[in-house]
Write a structure and sequence with these properties.
homodimer, 169 residues, alpha+beta, Arc Repressor Mutant, subunit A, four-stranded mixed β-sheet, two-stranded antiparallel ribbon, 6 helices, 6 strands, binds zinc ion, DNA-binding
Chain lengths: 169, 169
DNA sequence: AACAAGAATGTTATTTTGTAACATTCTTGT
DNA sequence: ACAAGAATGTTACAAAATAACATTCTTGTT
């Protein structure tokens, strides 16, 4: 996987619905490929997560699902999240207890995030170099790496410029 | 700050009480230096966190404090944790919701962690290279870094060898 | 179509983690 | 002694996640 910047969460006015469609298509085909079922809740959960420009909390998602007639008990949403996570379709941002659609689900990877403290927009970035360095670093301690949580916070360029405090909410 | 491996949490049988004393001394002098008060709860909280070989949850800590006659309401422990965190005397491991003593509180830094999935031992490591790379990487996106959450999980060497599943608990 | 097995969802209750808000007490400088 | 701010006590609650068990939905097989 090459370096990329996932700008679906930036303040740009691109047609986000394209991203969403793309993500859902990818999800459909990945699930088909692996014999997994992208059921109604799961699909809708994924879509709702994508529709949010910033990471969505489990209970925020649950509320949205409930509005639409889905069951409104926590296990519903946590099961959907678990499925989407294990399918690599979303990431969890540990430091926010929130979930984010992944635009590169077809290429298994660790999510590295840049999180703006001001507008809460999140940019996923890929940096193979860092990944390699971390693996090596761990190896020198005899440590065998499994998962990586890399979440950087700070100020995005828009918020530094006082643009409009983070663009579209 | 140079590279180091904080092995106070490893399975080695070193005299951990030395680490604790050291940490408390550092804490005392740092607080004095900055005109902050290392009160009884705060001091004891720090000590208890250090006495645990693995990251300690807020409510685990609260229970221990309560046993010793301290107030047993959540705010007590969260206030102590907040103080210790902001003083740089402990780190929070986001992916575990748990807290860990820092052996290098005198040199302000971000906590980078290697967490064993098996024995839950945590090793703090420093890697100035990574820090620099991340800052640069963020900068190329116009992003100004503030905090870094870097938590790697996997298997420590002991657990790979099936040593004794993580040493002392 | 009938059936069985496993996957997915429904339901209820509880646990774990973390805060808000306001009252009281302690510390320090005057 | 006094005032101001820091720290702690207290009560209540919010937010995030899971346990356990019942029910329903799918899918392949007979
Ligand atoms: Zn991703
Ligand atoms: Zn921003
Ligand atoms: Zn540290
Ligand atoms: Zn281990």
């Amino acid at each position: 996987m090459t370096e990329h910047s996932n700008d679906h969460t930036s303040q740009s006015e691109h047609n986000h619905s394209h991203c969403i469609e793309q993500a859902l298509e990818t999800a459909e085909s990945l699930c088909a490929e692996h014999g997994q079922r992208l059921t109604k809740v799961r699909r809708r959960a994924l879509e709702l997560i994508w529709q949010s420009h910033r990471p969505l909390g489990a209970y925020q998602l649950l509320a949205k699902l409930a509005e639409e007639g889905f069951n409104s008990a926590p296990p519903t949403v946590y099961r959907a999240l678990e499925f989407l996570l294990s399918a690599g379709l979303i990431h969890k941002v540990e430091s926010m207890n929130a979930y984010l659609g992944c635009a590169h689900a077809d290429k298994p990877h660790k999510g590295y995030f840049l999180i703006c403290d001001e507008c809460q927009n999140v940019m996923e970035f890929d940096y193979q170099d860092i990944h390699k360095i971390l693996i090596d670093k761990a190896a020198t301690q005899g440590f065998q790496l499994r998962s990586e949580t890399i979440e950087l916070t700070g100020l995005c360029s828009s918020c530094q410029n006082g643009d409009d405090e983070g663009g579209c909410k």
